Automatic annotation (TrEMBL):
<feature type="repeat" description="WD">
    <location>
        <begin position="298"/>
        <end position="339"/>
    </location>
</feature>
<protein>
    <submittedName>
        <fullName>Uncharacterized protein</fullName>
    </submittedName>
</protein>
<dbReference type="Pfam" id="PF00400">
    <property type="entry name" value="WD40"/>
</dbReference>
<dbReference type="InterPro" id="IPR036322">
    <property type="entry name" value="WD40_repeat_dom_sf"/>
</dbReference>
<dbReference type="InterPro" id="IPR001680">
    <property type="entry name" value="WD40_rpt"/>
</dbReference>
<keyword id="KW-0853">WD repeat</keyword>
<dbReference type="InterPro" id="IPR015943">
    <property type="entry name" value="WD40/YVTN_repeat-like_dom_sf"/>
</dbReference>
Amino acid sequence: MAEEGDVADFVDDMDGEYYDGDLSFLDEYDMLMKMTDTSSAQARKGKDIQGIPWDRLNITRESYRLTRLEQYQNYENVPSSGEAVDKECKQIEKGGNYYEFFHNTRLVKPTILHFQLRNLVWATSKHDVYLMSNYSVMHWSSLSSNLVEVLNFSGHIAPTEKHTGSLLEGFTQTQISTLAVRDNFLVAGGFQGELTCKRLDRPGVSFCTRTTYEDNSITNAVEIYNNLSGGIHFMASNNDCGVREYDMERFQLLNHFRFPWPVNHTSVSPDRKLITVVGDHLDGLLVDSQNGKTVASVVGHLDYSFASAWHPDGRTFATGNQDKTCRIWDMRNLSSSIAVLKGNMGAVRSIHYSSDGQFLVVAEPADFVHLYSTKSDYKKRQEIEFFGEISGVCLSPDDESLYIGVWDRTYASLLQYNKRHTYGYLDSFV
């Protein structure tokens, strides 16, 4: 991934070549008015899901969409990787209708700090969502419409428990690059290789550590998972080319694997025997989870990858790349991908399989989230479309709710979609 110097340059130039996410120029009037949410009933009556008043603007929604598609510049480490894909691959036709818009919450303000890292929204139930908002980890309850701060990194944070290897002095003003929340555990990764662990059912922070003191040590991704013996582990992927596995009972480092290039994302197979490893290289790796040795490589992407996910069946997995594609791989034949899923305008920054394996959620950096049906061999998709940078996308553990964090100076919000059922759609009056 880009080095930290590049990040600063990029942030300073966010209104320039690579960023076109600010919608404030569209609606100065609305900024003076009360920001309002959008319900499913209002959306069915024609209200824009983000509350953008297109009827008062000098541009139509359709015209602005065309402008965005034409002007949005996808960030590439390999020049013209997206153009090459555009020539080779066709977009899967739309037509799927798996999740239906339910609510847009303007009270929730998701944010991002690094333009390549977009895993900052996590749901622990269909009603409970954790996300980054500036320096704070926030909890949103869609049931009670309550927004509560869980952890604030702007000041000093120190562990309240004693564990071997924990930095008892803690951290000050930690810039959070990535987040993972599962069950009662939260792990936040920082720009200087920091890892902060918290149990959500206890006050305070359980564990703080710095993975490395190298200059380019940003924590790119964290995954929390159950190991085969029933304990909870987490895996951190870092820019220092390392992958580190910790247990979450004693917060001890169990494994440290090193690779020839910065690791942007890892995911552990359902049987816990293999790890997908992707990063600043065109190829992805499958490695043995016990010893870190490479078992196989997957070849086909044209740029660096930032996302990976396993299907619950353990036979197929997906990788997301800056060449604007998500590729699907089958363990029974890794010589080539079995499907190439092309985005509309940007890199694939975040991907998740549903827990039942029926859907694959693929998020671009901005404006588009795609849901593919695995039952139709990825040949059917639903396209969720809006305006703004995507801070994260996640499914609830029961697959009932889909949440999308939208980062924008004016229209920042949390989008909620609910799974469609054959008995029809019912509005909630809670």
